[in-house]
Amino acid sequence: xxxxxxxxxxxxxxxxxxxxxxxxxxxxxxxxxxxxxxxxxxxxxxxxxxxxxxxxxxxxxxxxxxxxxxxxxxxxxxxxxxxxxxxxxxxxxxxxxxxxxxxxxxxxxxxxxxxxxxxxxxxxxxxxxxxxxxxxxxxxxxxxxxxxxxxxxxxxxxxxxxxxxxxxxxxxxxxxxxxxxxxxxxxxxxxxxxxxxxxxxxxxxxxxxxxxxxxxxxxxxxx
Amino acid sequence: xxxxxxxxxxxxxxxxxxxxxxxxxxxxxxxxxxxxxxxxxxxxxxxxxxxxxxxxxxxxxxxxxxxxxxxxxxxxxxxxxxxxxxxxxxxxxxxxxxxxxxxxxxxxxxxxxxxx
Lengths: 223, 116
What we know:
The structure holds two protein chains of two kinds. Chain A starts with 7 loop residues before the first helix and ends with a helix. By secondary structure, chain A is mostly helical. Chain A is built from ten helices and two strands, in the order αααααββααααα. Chain A has two domains: 8-81; 91-206. In chain A, helix 1 packs antiparallel against helix 2, helix 5 (91-112) packs antiparallel against helix 7 (143-161) and helix 7 packs antiparallel against helix 8. Chain A is 69% helix and 5% strand. Chain A has a two-stranded antiparallel ribbon with strand order 1-2. In chain B, strands 1-3-2 form a three-stranded antiparallel beta sheet. Chain B is globular and about 60 Å long. By secondary structure, chain B is of the alpha+beta class. The A-B interface holds A 1, 5, 27-28, 31-32, 34-36, 38-39, 41-43, 45-46, 56-58, 62-63, 66-67, 70-71, 73-74, 214-216, 218-220, 222-223 and B 16-18, 20-21, 33-36, 38, 49-65, 70, 75, 77-80, 87, 91, 94-95, 98-99, 102.
């Protein structure tokens, strides 16, 4: 649709409305503005002047407020009518907790265990015991190995601290990185301990999103 | 906060959720463009302000109940027409049956209370 026939006041009004609707999803925002644009042009074709048309429509702030209130209930109903309420602890998130737990466990096993005590008897019959604790074991690990474990901890932790729309993306990226770290650990140093955590992380990323009522059902559910 | 049952508030609350089905009902009679739809709804007292129609239309389009198309008009400039989809028709049928029973229930309650 060309904007050439739209008076400057109309263009400025539409831009202001569009800016104020920034928090609404792009497709919906464009549809609202497109509808308003068509409305203004039709009213102008009908002989109204732009000032009258815009006055009838209301200020951009009023129009945007009305649009937001129209969209906000839809969002809250989406939550209310969902088969599963929006909650933090979904099955995917549980798997991610398991992945993080397994990574912590692998880190503890590799870095801090085994802690052992070697007992030796000297020629004079004296008994000497030497304890190698976890911290000494950790200190002997190579920096590459440590950074691999640290990376594994971070990527399994990341999906647990992220919420909202980016969560799925973060989960997929985390699972990918976790798979790479695990493969590298196995190939380079024969460390299989990260494999269970990687599997949990990948399964969590591949699980389908929780089912939601479609907007069609929501519209019907309102009555 | 105390609930004030003003006429405006009651009407606004009742209109919410009903207007979209009125739009579907109008479109069931044939495709039409936004200004015409807005004028009709405003004349019937179903919307307060013309601009409230377009967020509603965006929701109906997004839900697949309505589709839009720019069609050349007699004025020479294309007009954006809204058309009811099959899904929209189904939603309208569902609404009609729900609305009939709801309306009857409300009427019955109001009549019973009214006689006390």
